[in-house]
Every structure is written in C-alpha cells, then in structure tokens.
Amino acid sequence: MNRIQVLPKAVAEKIAAGEVVERPASVVKELLENAIDAGAAALTLEIQNGGVRFIRVTDDGSGIPAEDVATAFLRHATSKVHTDGDLEAIGTLGFRGEALASVTAVSKVELITRTADELEGTRIALAGGEVLEQGPAGCPQGTTILVRDLFYNTPARMKFLKKDVTEGNAVRAVAERLALSHPEISLKFIKDGREELHTPGDGKLLSAVHAVLGRDFARDLLPVDYALGSVRITGFVLKPVSARANRNMQFFFLNGRLVKSRTAMAALEQAYKGSIMVGRFPGCVLHIALPPALVDVNVHPAKTEVRFADEHAVFEAVYYAVKNTIAEKDTRPALRLPG
Ligand code: ADP
Ligand code: MG
C-alpha cells in the first residue's frame, strides 16, 4: 500500500483550480464579476481562439492598491468578506477569494491596475501560480487583466475543451447574461478582433435587452412591474402572439445575478397556459428582487441554481406578475425602444 501524504502545494492548487475554472467561459465570468464588484461603469472583454489563447478584461473600477496586488492572487484572499457575519449578507458577486488564485494556477496572467489615490499603477505577471515579475507601471484608473494559454500546464483539462467556436459562444453567453443583469454598465465584447456586442450602459433594462437579444425580440415585449409580499418582479415578458419555438429566451435574475430556478420557469409557463399554442414557449427577462435573507446564495460558485426559503411565494409572485401583464396588455402598441 502507498503511504498517505499531504499533496504538494502545486498539485493541490491545480485540483482546487479545476473546481472554479472549467473552460474559458468560467474564467470570463469570474473576471467580469470582479470588474462589476469593483464598481466599473464600462468594461471591455476581448477574446481570441474561443478564449483559450487570450482573454482580456479592462475595467474603470476601483483598481487594486499596490500593496495588495500580489495578495489578490492568493487562495481565500478577498476584500469582500472579513468576518463570518459578513457571509450572512453578501452584497457582491464574488466573496470566496478563489477566482484569481484558480485562474493563475492554470494559465499565464498579467494584471495592470491603479486606484484613484495612486499616482502610479502596478503591473504583475504570473504563470502556473507563481509570481514572475511585479513593479510600477503607468496606467489609467482601473484594472486590466490578461489571461493567456489556459490549461497550458494541465494537458488533461485542455483535452476536454471544445472547438474554439463552441468555447467562444459560451463566453458570449456569459457576457450577454452579465450585460442583461447590469444595464447600468456598458459592456463591449470583442471576439477575434471583431466587436460582437456593445451595450449602452444607460441603466435601462430595455436598452440592454435590445443590444443583447436584438430589436425584434425587444419590440415584442410587455413591461412587468409587480410586487407580492416581499417579492418584487420587474422586467419584460414576450407577448403571447410572439411565443417562441424553444425556451432559449427565458432569463431570470435574482438580486442582480443570473439564476436558474425551476420554480420561476414553471410559474412563467403556467401563466402563459391557454394564451399560447402547444409547442410554443414564453420568453422573458425578469428580475426577481427578494430580501437576501430569503435566498441561499452560498452555493457552489460555478452553479447558478438557487434555492428560495419560500419557493411558493416566488412561484406566486412570478405567476401573477406574468399573468396580469399578458392578460391586460396584449393589445398595446409595440414598446418604444430607446436610442
Ligand atoms: P473574490 O472576488 O471572491 O473576492 P477573487 O479571487 O476574484 O476573489 O479576487 C480577489 C480580490 O482581488 C478581490 O476581493 C478584489 O479585492 C481584488 N480584485 C480582483 N479583480 C479586481 C478588479 N477588476 N478590480 C478591483 N479589484 C479586483
Ligand atoms: Mg471574484
């Protein structure tokens, strides 16, 4: 029998990284969430080769102070949670302090950052979890992070990556969801040198929907604004006459985060029952706002499923919000698109 030994740090890091970083889209999700948490007003995401070769996120957020830059890449290092009491009311997208450590363990990373108080920024370069260089650098306020050669040191992971087109589409899906969840942020997505998406960041959900999901979809929507108990539902649902051939156009956000909720989906379909033909499906972009105490957010970072303390209350709120909207407003004229 083999002796039992504690894993060398480098091996343990690669295993832990695998939990957070599955493919380029998971890296992009973490980097965009960090930029949003940093209070950015504008983000640019660039990828090449589906994100496998190159991912760059530039934000105009808070930046990281020079003395904290290296610490940001350590596992469980975070500025967002300090005590276990903080875990009870998380107001940021990230809080585990694992993303940068994980990404750095399986790629080559360069980060340039400056806070508003600093005259000079900082540049750091890492590969395979090790710091290669760190020093001062001139840069605007905010952060740019470049991730190259994902999984260069974990060939087994590399083999599971799909074609660049498929990985690129998964990245786009992440960018779209974050754009829809934050209409106040302008997001630009550039793929292999071509601009694929650019949201205005004017704070209007309909503008983001228009930019991300297209003019035709945005035109066929009805506005929703409904509250039941402590649950508030806002956003848009598709007119029954414009019902779709699949469920691809159903987006639910909970307190600003894209989520999957069987309860919300079931309530949506139930509300359309009798208004659309069999084999046709509703579409929606619905934001569900709930007191944080009624949601279990401390779930796995890569998973989007949520649990509600009161599933029934959420079902009812979504059901009546949608039902009332489509019942009374189906004959109203098309929405006026901003811009
Ligand atoms: P988490 O987001 O869970 O705190 P991360 O590993 O993603 O953990 O990031 C570690 C820390 O690095 C963050 O808590 C934050 O202080 C800092 N950070 C990361 N990205 C940015 C960014 N784009 N702008 C400002 N600070 C950042
Ligand atoms: Mg993070």
Automatic annotation (TrEMBL):
Q: Which part of the chain is the DNA mismatch repair protein S5 domain?
A: 209-327
The record's Gene Ontology biological-process terms are: mismatch repair
- Enumerate the GO terms in the molecular function aspect: ATP binding; ATP hydrolysis activity; ATP-dependent DNA damage sensor activity; mismatched DNA binding
Q: Name one GO cellular component term.
A: mismatch repair complex
Name the source's superkingdom. Bacteria
- Does the UniProt entry include the keyword DNA damage? yes
Q: Does the keyword Transmembrane apply?
A: no
Q: Which keywords appear in this protein's UniProt record, sorted alphabetically?
A: DNA damage, DNA repair
Task: Explain the purpose of this protein.
Answer: This protein is involved in the repair of mismatches in DNA. It is required for dam-dependent methyl-directed DNA mismatch repair. May act as a 'molecular matchmaker', a protein that promotes the formation of a stable complex between two or more DNA-binding proteins in an ATP-dependent manner without itself being part of a final effector complex.
**Which family does the record assign?**
Belongs to the DNA mismatch repair MutL/HexB family.
Name of the protein in its database record: DNA mismatch repair protein MutL
Give the originating organism.
Ethanoligenens harbinense (strain DSM 18485 / JCM 12961 / CGMCC 1.5033 / YUAN-3)
Q: Which residues of the full protein are shown?
A: 1 to 339 of 669
